[in-house]
Amino acid sequence: MLAVGVLAGLSVLSLLTYGYLSWDSLGLGPGETEATRTGPGEEPGAGGPSSQPHIIFILADDQGFRDVGYHGSEIRTPTLDKLAAEGVKLENYYVQPMCTPSRSQFITGKYQIHTGLQHSIIRPTQPNCLPLDNVTLPQKLKEVGYSTHMVGKWHLGFYRRECMPTQRGFDTFFGSLLGSGDYYTHFKCDSPGICGYDLYENDNAAWDHDNGIYSTQMYTQKVQQILASHNPRKPLFLYIAYQAVHSPLQAPGKYFEHYRSINNINRRRYAAMLACLDEAINNVTLALKKYGYYENSIIIYSSDNGGQPMAGGSNWPLRGSKGTYWEGGIRAVGFVHSPLLKNKGSVCKELVHITDWFPTLITLAEGQIDEDIQLDGYDIWETISEGRRSPRVDILHNIDPIYTKAKNGSWAAGYGIWNTAIQSAIRVNHWKLLTGNPGYSDWVPPQAFSNAGPNRWHNERVSWSAGKTVWLFNITADPYERVDLSARYPDVVKQLLRRLSQFNKTAVPVRYPPKDPRSNPKLNGGVWGPWFKEDEKKKKSDKSKGANKQKKNKNKKKAN
Of 54, 119, 149, 155, which one is the catalytic site residue? Predict the structure, then answer.
C-alpha cells in the first residue's frame, strides 16, 4: 500500500509539474473528492447513483487510420493513447467512407440501404434528411430517463424543422448543421453566392457565440458547461461530434510548435488540428472526473471515416482514402474507455461496425429495442468488455445503385448473379468483395508527405487489367488489399455476390433529390437552416375543402 501511495503521489506531482492537471483544474479542494462532491442544488448524499451508465460518444471527423500515436503516427496524441491503452482498442472496427452515412448508421443502427441514404452525403441545398420514420438512439435513451445532449456537427439534414437534432431526440444541440465550414467564423459557401452562417444553439442561429473561437475549443467549453450543470446521479448521453480534423485545415498557432519540421503544409496543419483535438479530449475527460461522472461512464471514441491524403490525412499501411470502399476509407480508429470494462488494457480484433453502437448502448442503458425495428447492428458489449466472440460475421459496406457505373461491368462478369457495374462492397468472415468503381486505390506511405506540396511520386499503384470490376481479398491474411483472389476463388466470389443480391432485395429507394433554390441562406436571414414550408396553395385548398365540408354538413342538419 505504501508503494502505491508513493507512486500515486509522484504521478500527481508530475502532472502538476507539467501543467496537465491541477487541483484548481479539477475543482477539488483539499479533502474534497469526487465522492464527496454534490450535484447542482443538492444536499450532500442526496439520492444514489444511477445503475445506468453515462454514455459519452466522441466522433472525430476524417481522422486517418495511422493518425493516432498508437498506430505509429509522428503526430503526438498522448490523451488518445492513454485512454485507449487503459481501455479496449478496436482493431477490426469499420465505419462508412463519408460523413452522413456513418452518422446515420450510428444514430439508427441501420445500413444506408435501409434508410435511403446510400448515395454520397446530404448536401446543404438538398431537401433531404434522415427519414423521419427512423427511431434514433437519443430517442430510445430518453425513453429510459436519459438526458440527451449533442455538441458538434450534425450533417443529417435540416431542410425542415422536424429534421433538426432537437426534433430527433436531443434535449439540447449546439453545433453546425452542415458537413464543413470555417472553424472560426462558422461560415460556409456551398457554391458562389450561396453562403451563410452555420452555428446553432438548439433551433436558432447562435449569433451570440460568434466570437471567433476555434470550434474544437468552443465545443469543448460547451461540453464542460453541460457537465457542470447536469446532475451526475441521473444518466447522461453526450454525443460530441467534433469538426476536426475535416478541411478547411485551420488551427490555433500554438499547436504548430511541435510540427515545424513537417514540410508538407497540409500535413503540418492537420497535425496541429489533431494536437488540439487530443487536448480537447483530455479536457473533456478531466471534466468527467471533476463533476463526478467518470466512474460510471463509458467513453467511446471513433473516426467517422478514413483520412484524406490530399488534406493531410494518412491511412498507411491501408489502401485508399476517404470516399472509397478500400480499407483506408472504412477501417477506423476506435476504442472504448470505461471503469466498467472487465478486460481493461486489451485489444479487440473481433468484427465491429458503427451500426453496433445503437443496440449495444440501448442495452447498456437498460432500454428496450422494439421488435418491429429491423436493425443491422448487434449488441457487442460482451465482445468488447469480456473478450468474447463477436455476434457479427458480415458487414454490408454499401450498395450504391446511382454511383457512376463501371464501364466494363456486367451481369456476365457477375456470373448472372450481380451486375458488377454497380458500386458495392461486402465483408463476410475473412472475405471482402468489391464491385464496380471502388474509388481512389493508391497506398500513400509517409514519404508522400515529405515534400512541401502534395506529392504522389511515392504512392504505390496497381494497374488493373482492362475491364476489371470484381475484387476479392482475404482481409485477415491481407489487410492491405495487395493480393486480389477473385480469379483463384470464383466460388467464393459467387457466394458473396449472392449475399449482395440478398441484401439488395431489402433496400429502399435512394433519397438524393436535386437542390432546392429556396435553401439559399440569403432567403433565410443569412443563415443555413430549415427552409421547407408547405405550399400555401395547398393550405388554402385544404381550408376551402374543409369549409365546403362544413357547409354541406350544416345544410344536411337544416334539411333534417
Answer: 155
Do 388 and 445 lie in a common domain? no
Please indicate, yes or no, if residue 32 is contained in any of the structural domains: no
99, 129, 163, 276: which one is catalytic?
A: 99
Nearest in space to 57 (alpha carbons), one of 112, 100, 103: 103
pTM: 0.88
Task: Out of 450-459, 466-475, 548-557, pick the least confident.
Answer: 548-557
Contact predicate 317/359, CB 8 Å: no
d(CA 248, CA 555): 67
Domain containing 498 equals 399-506
Boundary-marking domain end, from 376, 392, 408: 392
* 189-245 pLDDT, tens digit each: 999 999 999 999 999 999 988 789 999 999 999 999 999 999 999 999 999 999 999
Written as nine digits, the cell of 177 is: 448543421
| Of 369, 299, 352, the residue nearest 136 (C-alpha) | 369
Same domain, 419 and 372: no
Is residue 195 among the annotated active site residues? no
In a domain? residue 462: yes
Q: How many domains does the chain have?
A: 2
Question: Do 189 and 257 sit in the same domain of this protein?
Answer: yes
pLDDT for 465: 56
Residue 174: inside a domain:
yes
| Residue 151: strand, helix, or coil | strand
Residues 78 and 203 in one domain: yes
Do 170 and 270 lie in a common domain?
yes
Give backbone dihedrals phi and psi of 149, rounded to 5 degrees, phi first: -135, 140
The CB-based long-range contact list for 472-476 (8 Å cut-off, 24+ gap) reads: 472/431, 472/432, 472/433, 472/496, 473/431, 473/432, 474/430, 474/431, 474/432, 475/327, 475/427, 475/430, 475/431, 475/432, 476/430
Q: What is the mean pLDDT of the chain?
A: 88
Examine the domain organization and report whether 385 and 300 are in the same domain.
yes
Using the 3D structure, point to which of 469, 490, 506 is the last residue of a domain: 506
Helix, strand and coil content of the chain, in percent to the nearest 5, comes to: 35, 15, 50
User: Tell me: the pLDDT tens digits for 286-320?
Assistant: 999 999 999 999 999 999 999 999 999 999 999 99
- 155 catalytic, yes or no? yes
